[in-house]
Amino acid sequence: MSKPHHPAIRELLKKHPDGLTVNEICSFTGLRDGNILRSLKSMPDVYIDRWIVAKQQKREEAVWVVVEVPEHCPRPERKERVRPTKLCNVEQPELGRLLYGFVHQDARTTSGY
After folding, report:
1. Is the distance from CB of 27 to CB of 12 less than 8 angstroms?
2. What tens digit of pLDDT does each residue of 4-62 get?
3. Which of 9, 16, 45, 108 is the most exposed place for a label (fewest CB within 10 A)?
């Protein structure tokens, strides 16, 4: 089965929200069960909801359901980057005033700070 059949199967499953088995999809579309199964396995928006036991058969059959895929989440807006301020050299007495709020009277400027 080629990809052009995917939309038809998808729409059929959307019309049956309780889901359909591969045999039921075959009866609606007239396509082969192997092709439908291959297509269902390659479709990312369908999944097996549950398993049922058919009356005529003793084996279990998968009930396939389609899910509505939401749109991608929008990307957050970027904030304008704020550049850091440029650091400047501060004289020793001014540094004391900035750090401690005052400069002691006996403070001397040293070159090794």
Report:
1. no
2. 789 999 999 999 999 999 999 999 999 998 999 999 999 999 999 999 987 777 788 89
3. 108
Contact between 45 and 38 under an 8 Å Cβ cutoff? The reply is no
Residue that is written with structure tokens 């998968």 in the block: 62
Amino acid identity, position 6: H
The architecture CATH gives domain 3-66:
Orthogonal Bundle (1.10)
Q: How far is CA 111 from CA 91, 100, 102, 108, in A?
A: 10, 20, 20, 10
CB-CB contact of 63 with 50 (8 Å): yes
- pTM for this model (two decimals): 0.58
Domain definitions of the chain by residue range:
3-66
- The secondary structure of the chain, three-state, reads CCHHHHHHHHHHHHHCCCCECHHHHHHHHCCCHHHHHHHHHHCCCEEEEEEEECCCCCCEEEEEEECCCCCCCCCCCCCCCCCCCCCCCCCHHHHHHHHHCCCCCCCCCCCCC
